[in-house]
Design a protein that fits this description.
With 303 residues, the chain is an alpha/beta fold. The chain has ten helices and 15 strands. The protein starts with a strand and ends with a strand.
């Protein structure tokens, strides 16, 4: 079975090449071809010997995606539906947004999602599997190849819970961050989580400089558990304790996401509790209006 060469950061790729009898410096050449020149075949790596290209073709795949569908909004935002080409018919979504500071991509981390958040469209997609590191990176590469652009910011907020696929997400960030590859700074990478507390502690201990965004969406456990089942495992008190630890350990600000659902979490009492909850923390809150939730389902909001 061929291995996806995009799963390897530069150091691991050097070891892979040594294992097939090649010089480690070839890894930097391959890295440049994949992430800077954005080739889609090993044959295009013309400064590699024919013998090495044959070895690569025999042992590895470049893990290229097929664009199944592309939609564009009136504001220029583009949504991509990718066939991950894994032989199982799995599809994932990525979204490209353009701002004055450049292009931002919202990437998926899993095929489907386990979290079951009431306000999230991913809830309706049954979980199939985690995405590999190379499959996360390929979302960015596929869009850059399609449009001939350079993406400068990455948000892990697509299909799936990034911290539920922790190891692959961390590996993908190492690849994305490498200056000899895509060279995207950690401060330009944001990871959004529904609140997997143990992984927040792990991220803090890694001293990562990525931005952490936490889907909060309620200031009390009853409402949050109704909206987000993860709260039953990690209630608000535990989540906020982990967030404070993250801030203290990394000296980085946290972003809290709060979706305003009419008659659920948008009243004055909720606002007062939210202020009390985050007071004194190095953070900011993004308020997002969404449709009303009734009996666990969306209805059209009158606001």
């Amino acid at each position: 079975l061929k291995k996806n060469i995009k799963n390897y950061d530069l150091d691991v790729l050097k070891e892979e090449l040594k294992n097939i009898g090649e010089k480690p410096f070839r890894a930097e050449q391959i890295f440049k071809w994949i992430y800077q020149d954005k080739v889609t075949t090993f044959d295009e790596m013309t400064n590699l010997s024919l013998d090495l290209r044959k070895k690569l073709e025999e042992n590895y795949t470049l893990g290229n995606f097929k664009i199944e569908k592309k939609l564009e909004s009136v504001d220029g935002t583009k949504k991509y539906l990718f066939d991950v080409q894994d032989g199982q018919g799995n599809l994932i979504e990525s979204v490209l947004m353009q701002y004055h500071h450049g292009y931002t991509i919202c990437v998926s981390s899993q095929v489907g999602c386990k979290m079951g958040c009431k306000f999230c469209a991913s809830t309706g997609i049954p979980f199939s599997r985690d995405l590999e590191a190379g499959e996360i990176v390929e979302q960015l590469l596929a869009i850059e190849r399609d449009l001939g652009i350079r993406i400068s910011n990455i948000v892990f907020m697509g299909i799936g819970e990034p911290l539920d696929n922790y190891d692959n997400v961390m590996e993908s960030i190492k690849i994305l961050n490498n200056p000899k590859g895509l060279g995207i700074g950690a401060r330009h990478i944001s990871i959004s989580t529904s609140g997997l507390v143990p992984k927040i502690y792990e991220m803090a201990d890694r001293q990562m400089q990525c931005t952490l965004s936490v889907s909060l969406h309620s200031s009390n456990n009853k409402t949050r558990s109704e909206m987000m089942p993860i709260n039953n495992a990690y209630p608000i008190e535990e989540l906020m304790k982990a967030c404070k630890y993250y801030i203290e350990k990394t000296n980085k600000r946290i972003s809290f996401e709060y979706a305003l659902a009419k008659d659920n979490n948008d009243n004055l009492d909720d606002a007062k509790k939210l202020i009390k909850l985050i007071r004194g923390m190095n953070c900011h809150v993004n308020l997002i209006p969404i449709n009303k939730i009734e009996n666990g389902k969306f209805t059209k909001s009158t606001n």
